[in-house]
Write a sequence for this structure.
């Protein structure tokens, strides 16, 4: 009896399991059908976009590619062709973004090669030569036989070398400008320092001069206090030396004018005349004693 109940339970579980499997299978089939339908619609949009792109109708082609991606975001053709349409329309930033998406979603080497090749072309348009070199290298890794990619790689290498040389030159010039700026700054600091020192020295000189003038005024004031009754200083300055009494008298005596005798000369002459007259008088007196009369004349 218990065996029969077990069989019934097993049968019921198997029935439920079979129903679930059938439901899952139906769901998978529906998902696959929906996916196939979405892919078909996406491919249709891509096809339509390609037709518009061939007619240079970039705006409409972009709209069709976006519809394709909305139906199936992983469609490689839609991403790649959308990027290509941006290149032809001159929108390189958006094209670069879409092509980078294509390199991630693509599974075949041919698709990756084309995406990296176009990425290299965009980078060259933007003067990013060093990055373009890496893009072309990735393209050749996926298709080493493409001579066009190899040629573009050579151009990118030459462009990158020129940019590096120019960058090095600019760095050297910037360094020279910086050194010159530092030298000018140091020269200006030295000049300012020298000016400050000169001003300080001038201030010291002015102070010394003021002190000297003040000392001279004090000396002059003291000299003015020590004057005699004639208004002349009582003491002569030390640097002039002491002078003898004769020199002072001689300086005080008026100097003779040209053609005239000085007072001293007149005095000497008078003394000589007196002496001569005295001698003559003595001689006369002696003659008188002898009784001889002598006529005398004074000789000037």
């Amino acid at each position: 009896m218990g065996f029969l109940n077990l069989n019934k339970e097993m049968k019921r579980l198997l029935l439920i399991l079979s129903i679930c499997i059938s439901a899952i299978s139906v769901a998978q089939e529906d998902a696959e059908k929906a996916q196939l339908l979405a892919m078909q619609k996406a491919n249709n949009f891509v096809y339509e976009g390609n037709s518009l792109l061939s007619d240079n109708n970039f705006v409409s082609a972009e709209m069709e590619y976006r519809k394709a991606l909305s139906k199936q975001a992983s469609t490689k053709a839609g991403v790649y062709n959308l990027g290509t349409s941006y290149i032809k329309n001159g929108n390189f930033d958006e094209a670069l973004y879409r092509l980078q998406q294509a390199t991630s979603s693509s599974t075949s080497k041919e698709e990756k090669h084309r995406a990296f090749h176009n990425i290299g072309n965009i980078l060259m348009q933007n003067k990013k030569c060093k990055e373009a070199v890496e893009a072309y290298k990735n393209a050749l890794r996926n298709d080493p036989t493409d001579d066009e990619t190899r040629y573009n790689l050579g151009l990118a290498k030459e462009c990158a070398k020129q940019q590096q040389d120019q960058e090095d030159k600019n760095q050297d010039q910037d360094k020279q400008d910086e050194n010159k700026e530092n030298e000018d700054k140091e020269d200006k600091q030295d000049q300012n320092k020298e000016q400050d020192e000169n001003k300080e020295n001038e201030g010291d000189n002015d102070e010394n001069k003021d002190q000297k003038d003040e000392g001279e005024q004090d000396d002059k004031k003291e000299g003015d206090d020590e004057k005699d009754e004639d208004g002349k200083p009582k003491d002569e300055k030390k640097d002039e030396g002491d002078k003898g009494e004769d020199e002072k008298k001689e300086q005080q005596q008026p100097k003779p004018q040209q053609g005239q005798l000085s007072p001293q000369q007149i005095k000497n002459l008078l003394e000589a005349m007196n002496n001569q007259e005295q001698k003559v008088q003595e001689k006369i007196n002696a003659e008188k004693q002898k009784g001889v009369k002598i006529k005398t004349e004074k000789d000037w």
